[in-house]
Amino acid sequence: MLAILAAVLFGLALLMELFGFGLGPVVTTGTLTTAGLLCVALHLAGIATDRSRFTRRRRRR
Predict the structure, then answer these.
(1) Is 51 helix (H, G, I), strand (E, B) or coil?
(2) CA-CA distance, 33 to 54, in Å (whole number)?
(3) Could you tell me if residue 35 is inside a domain?
(4) Number of separate domains in the chain
(5) In 1-61, which residue ranges form alpha helices assigned H by DSSP?
(6) What span, in angstroms and rounded, lies between the C-alpha atoms of 3 and 31?
(7) Looking at residue 51, what is its pLDDT?
(8) Cβ(40)–Cβ(6) below 8 Å
(9) Is 53 helix (H, G, I), strand (E, B) or coil?
């Protein structure tokens, strides 16, 4: 989920840079890029991932 959010933030930053518009002094392309990098780092660290899907359960007989 964080990787998808990072991709959206990077896409918005790219569009803002290409078309040369901003959303005020706080939300700039640098801010969106930093937020995207934070989301990628959290994703790679395993935050907000569902680890139960990827574990294999062994059945006892």
Answers:
(1) helix
(2) 30
(3) yes
(4) 1
(5) 2-19, 29-45
(6) 17
(7) 64
(8) yes
(9) helix
What is the domain range of residue 12?
2-45
Examine residue 9 and state whether it is found in any structural domain, yes or no.
yes
Average pLDDT over residues 1-11: 92
Question: Residue 54's pLDDT is what?
Answer: 59
Average pLDDT, the chain: 86
For residues 9 and 2, give the distance between their C-alpha atoms in angstroms, rounded to a whole number.
10
Q: Dihedral of CA 27/31/37/41: which sign?
A: negative
Instruction: Return the H-helix or E-strand segment holding 1.
Output: none
42 neighbors 2 (Cβ within 8 angstroms): yes
How far apart, in Å, do the first and last CA atoms of the chain sit?
37
- Which amino acid is it at 26? V
